[in-house]
Amino acid sequence: MKKMASLLILMTFLLGACQSKPRKAASSQPDDVLCGRADSAMVNSILKKFSHQKDEPIGKLVVEVGKEFLGEPYVSYTLEHGPKEPLTISLKELDCTTFTETALALARTIKDPQSNLQQYANELEKIRYRNGKRNGYPSRLHYFSDWIYNNQEKGIVSQPAEKFGKPLDIQVNFMSTHPNSYSVLMSNPELVPAIAKQEKVISERHYFYLPKDEIDAKELQLKDGDIVGIVTNIKGLDIAHVGILVRQNGHMHLMNASTLSNDVVISDPTLAEFLNHKRSYLGIMIARPEN
Predict the structure, then answer these.
(1) Is-same-fold flag (2-139; 144-289)?
(2) Topology (CATH level 3) of domain 2-139
(3) What pLDDT does 29 receive?
(4) pLDDT, tens digit, for every residue of 47-63?
(5) Under DSSP, is residue 228 helix (H, G, I), strand (E, B) or coil?
(6) 262's torsion region: left (phi>0), alpha (psi -120 to 50) or beta?
(7) Which long-range contacts (CB under 8 A, 24 or more apart) does 61-64 make?
(8) SS (H, E, C) 236-252
(9) What percent of the chain has pLDDT over 70?
(10) Mean per-residue pLDDT of the chain
């Protein structure tokens, strides 16, 4: 009975329905996927809409795909489904990180010869998890500096601030020192040492960023579709917010899943104005999507 249920789930996913299994991952964890009918329908709709734009630059696709989500609600903790970490496909409820991952994964899928729901799941998993392999909660790239570093290693993004930015010292430990702020860590304290080990590695690397007082002077170095993490001075954290850059009226603005408006928006203030709004914002780390 259990095997029959699993088979039915797999079949419904391949037909564009809800829960199932994509390609088998190199993992000891169950290879399950959480995907609602509305989410799978939206994936298929976007892939069909942009199917004739496979030759467009990846940055342009990231922006145009991102605009498909304007007005979609901001919802936090959509990935928190226990220590086994199923692959969550959520397009109707987004936070700032899942919004950028979704836009990037869709853009990459559009450019792939196998432009379908299965390939989108593959791309999302590759982007979201360390070395592209989902193997429980610690395998997710929880810190955005780590997300940028690992996706550069995978050839998915580059870090242009290495050429025009400044060195950035990052010391992260917030997750291991505040486990009760994370439902999975609170329920599974045995995972905290693994997270602390990752934090040590992240903190030993060299990073680059563009300080907020240099945004106006170096704005032309930025490109539409750049994914940016806003560097924070909050102790133990690296990035406070994530979004996608969009040029409007000659200036960069931030397309993001906003906690202020509770939906996906393109900010009215320019990027420089947005950063100057909070003293805790120090500047931006930049991940430039690569074809």
Answers:
(1) no
(2) Putative xylanase fold (1.10.3670)
(3) 34
(4) 999 999 999 999 999 99
(5) strand
(6) left
(7) 61/106, 61/107, 61/110, 61/111, 61/225, 62/103, 62/104, 62/107, 62/225, 62/227, 62/244, 62/289, 63/224, 63/225, 63/244, 63/246, 63/255
(8) ECCEEEEEEEEEECCEE
(9) 89
(10) 90
**Quick check: pTM over 0.85?**
yes
| pLDDT band with cut points at 50, 70 and 90 for residue 109 | very high
Whole-number pLDDT of residue 291: 83
Which element (helix H / strand E) includes 193? Answer: helix 192-203
Q: What is the dihedral of CA 140, 142, 146, 147, to 10 degrees?
A: 70
List the chain domain ranges. 2-139, 144-289
The span from the CA of 106 to the CA of 96, in Å, is: 16
Residues in the chain: 291
Rounded CA gap, 91 and 37, in Å? 10
What 3 state SS string does 149-167 have?
HHHHHCCCEECCHHHHCEE
Q: What is the CA radius of gyration of the chain?
A: 19
Q: Where are the beta strands (DSSP E) in the chain?
A: 33-35, 87-89, 157-158, 166-168, 207-211, 227-232, 239-248, 251-258, 263-266, 281-289
Structure tokens of 91? 């397009």
Q: What is the amino acid identity at position 21?
A: K
**Fold adopted by 144-289:** putative xylanase like fold (2.30.260)
Q: What is the pLDDT of residues 177-236, one digit of tens each?
A: 999 999 999 999 999 999 999 999 999 999 999 999 999 999 999 999 999 999 999 999
Q: Which amino acid is at 148?
A: I
3-state class (DSSP) for residue 20? strand
